[in-house]
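Figure 3 (text version): structure tokens given as input.
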């Protein structure tokens, strides 16, 4: 009960211990940033991330605010940036729009969507019902990985699925697959929440 695993992200917990947490305050997501952003700030790359609740880290906000400031003005606004204050309303609007757009691009470029992974996870929770499982997985872009799983375990019809899915090997395989889907669903949820956070800030600034 008192065992502490440390301040691991869900990906690190999954990699090292084989599980993840439904609510992990240490979870974080990294998104692609402009190369010039790294050279405009002294913050390390490891500190430029999005928190589990969708909020940008202090360092990421500071780096974005400084990056969005003309180079000849960065020294004069440095004290504002490093104290966590906004540089200006226009600056804040720019970085929130940029952050929202970047997060949206990340989601769009992924093989499956948040909605599809939710459907797939629901199908896995009801995997004992072969017909329901197949009907749901036909609706998602991840159906190829579904068919790969079925072929690997020789599950080509209802009867074989019912027999094999209850085997120890198939259940372990299904459990590992489910963990992978749970992780990528949480990853997408963080990015989606960041977009919502940005839109909320934008709404408050344009009023």
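Below: residues designed for each position.
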């Amino acid at each position: 009960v008192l065992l502490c695993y440390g301040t691991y992200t869900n990906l690190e917990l999954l990699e090292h211990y084989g599980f993840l947490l439904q609510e992990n305050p240490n979870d974080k997501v990294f998104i692609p940033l402009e190369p010039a952003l790294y050279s405009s700030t002294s913050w390390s790359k490891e500190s430029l991330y999005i928190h589990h609740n969708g909020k940008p880290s202090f360092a990421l906000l500071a780096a974005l605010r400084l990056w969005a400031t003309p180079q000849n003005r960065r020294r004069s606004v440095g004290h504002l940036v490093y104290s966590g204050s906004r540089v200006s309303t226009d600056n804040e609007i720019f970085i929130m729009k940029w952050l929202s757009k970047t997060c949206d691009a990340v989601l769009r470029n992924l093989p499956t969507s948040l909605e599809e992974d939710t459907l797939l996870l629901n199908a896995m929770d009801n995997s004992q019902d072969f017909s329901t499982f197949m009907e749901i997985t036909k609706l998602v872009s991840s159906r190829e990985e579904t068919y790969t799983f079925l072929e690997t375990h020789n599950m080509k019809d209802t009867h074989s699925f019912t027999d094999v899915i209850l085997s120890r090997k198939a259940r372990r395989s299904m459990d590992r697959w489910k963990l992978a889907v749970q992780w990528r669903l949480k990853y997408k949820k963080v990015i989606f929440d960041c977009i919502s956070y940005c839109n909320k800030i934008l709404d408050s600034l344009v009023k």
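The CA atoms of residues 51 and 78 lie 24 Å apart.
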